[in-house]
Amino acid sequence: MFYRPADGHGLPHNPFNAIVTPRPIGWISTRDAQGRDNLAPYSFFNAVAYVPPQVMFASTGSKADRGDTKDNVSNIRETGVFCVNIVGHELLDAMNASSKTLPAGEDEFLHAGLEKVDCETIPCARVAAAPASLECRMTQIIPLAGKSNFLVLGEVTGVHMRDDCLVDGRYDLTVAQPASRLGYRDYTIVKDLFELARPDDQV
Length: 203
Fold this sequence. Notes:
Blueprint: H1 16-19, E1 23-24, E2 26-31, E3 37-42, E4 45-49, E5 54-60, H2 71-79, E6 81-86, H3 92-98, H4 108-111, E7 116-118, E8 125-127, E9 132-143, E10 149-161, E11 166-167, E12 170-171, H5 173-176, E13 179-181, E14 187-189
């Protein structure tokens, strides 16, 4: 099968998200200028650089009470900071609950029954139970083609790792078991690993 996105795919559901998988979930927390916290998951998320460490997430869509975007991008425009919380397998239900569209200023931490703690380097809350969290200062917000599509880039200024996820000096993914987004309503959890040495790796 071949199709041009501009012409439509003719399938019951859009296959694009199922093709580009798995995608890590950036569970983004922000705080607005009035001090109100927000939390929402984004599956267009990834790390983009090592030195300095940088991440990105993309927000698609808008809310009537936020104009051309959603709560998190609006908050980041105000404050310039955000936190990326990693979704461990035990947090899937809470992550899903936090994706509900709520009025601006309503706290998804409370809605999802999550404990929050303050970040160390930025004025923002993070998910206390997350296996890892990345405190970030926004470097750019880039409008993308299409309505209400924005790319947010940030430099990581602080890293939290849950103590049980550190095993023999390594962040152990089999303990953290991060969730990833697939297509449609499908998700997966990292449980099984294998190593693959690159040709340039020294023995």
